[in-house]
Amino acid sequence: MHESFAHSVWRRFKRHKAGVVSLIILGIIILTAILAPVLARHDPNAINPAFSSAPTGEYWLGTDQMGRDVFSRLLYGTRVSLTVGVLSTLLATSIGTVLGLLAGYFGGAVDMMIMRITDMIMSFPYIMLILVAGVIFKPGMWMIIIILGLIDWPGVARLVRGEVLSLREKDFVHSSEIAGMPKSYILFSEILPNCFAPILIFGTGVMAISILDEASLSFLGMGIQPPQASLGNMLNGAQSITVLTSMPWLWLPPGLMIVILVVCTNFVGDALRDAMDPNAVE
User: Fold this and answer.
1) How far apart are CA 57 and CA 208, in angstroms?
2) What residue intervals traverse the membrane (predicted)?
3) Please, what is the Cα angle at 23 between 22 and 28, to 5 degrees?
4) Residue 50 CA from chain centroid, whole number
5) Would you say 71 and 60 are in contact if contact means Cβ atoms under 8 Å apart?
6) CA distance 175 to 186
7) Do 106 and 162 contact (CB within 8 A), yes or no?
8) DSSP assignment, residue 280?
9) Strand pairing partners for 124?
10) In sequence order, what E strands does the chain have?
11) Three-state SS for 69?
């Protein structure tokens, strides 16, 4: 019996133990973030009398300097980081995929114009672009999503363009052109499905970087603004030596959550790369 591509990918993915464990961990984190209103024991923005309290039965991860429950803020902060990571990745991959398809398929002036814009954006230091954009525009979750989406697309565009340059010489593309199929059909129904695997793999890396970027901007005060919880601005309140040495419950939970999200996302990406490799040894 012929095995479908999806079943083949899943079978090979399961061989990657780190990828499977990471996928399970990410699934649990995503579920807890979605259920944050149900799981949170306190309002994440509510100020309680217990300031900088160590973990107790009432406050599982203690409270911050303003008396806010760290556990509740961790749940809501994780939700923000995942939202920014997923949506900015979707925006960046959508823009990059469309521009890469157009550049690779049409070539000529279209290719030159898109690639010069891509080179111009990629020539600037990445972190500088993010910081400048964060200063210019009003801080907030949706603005961060737009900023990261508009900065992260060049890598996707170059990847897709390279794939299209190879695919447009294939017989199935020439057959569609000879049959008089519309360009839009050839691009999005014939070529794009064959680029899906590298786009998906590359997207996991973009998502990991986006989570780090959001945390960095929020840590520097140019991202998610208090009182809204964010993993980055939770770390922002734990910069003093006193907090670092005697109040680890203020910085360990958000710091570990960022590390876990980024590492697990990268492991899943590695597993997908191996599982989708057409030359993988069975």
Assistant:
1) 33
2) 20-40, 80-105, 191-212, 249-269
3) 95
4) 35
5) yes
6) 10
7) no
8) -
9) none
10) none
11) strand
The C-alpha atoms of residue 276 and residue 13 are separated, in whole angstroms, by 8
Count of other CB atoms within 10 angstroms of residue 109: 8
CA distance 123 to 115: 12
Reported residue count of the chain is 282
* Banded model confidence at residue 157, pLDDT cuts 50, 70, 90: very high
Cα–chain-centroid distance for residue 39? Answer: 24
> Identity (one letter) of the amino acid at 55?
P
Cis-peptide, bond into residue 227, ω within 30° of zero: yes
- CA-closest candidate to residue 47, choices 77, 62, 78, 69: 69
Helices (H) and strands (E) in the chain, counts: 13, 0
**pLDDT at 69 (0 to 100):** 87
* pLDDT tens digits, 89-98: 999 999 999 9
Rg (CA), the chain: 22
- Can you tell me the distance from the alpha carbon of 280 to that of 149, in angstroms, rounded to the nearest whole number? 32
How much is the pLDDT for 281? 46
Burial group, residue 249, by CB count within 10 angstroms (0-12, 13-18, 19+): buried
Secondary structure class of 155 (helix, strand, coil): helix
CA dist., res. 160 & res. 163, Å (int): 5
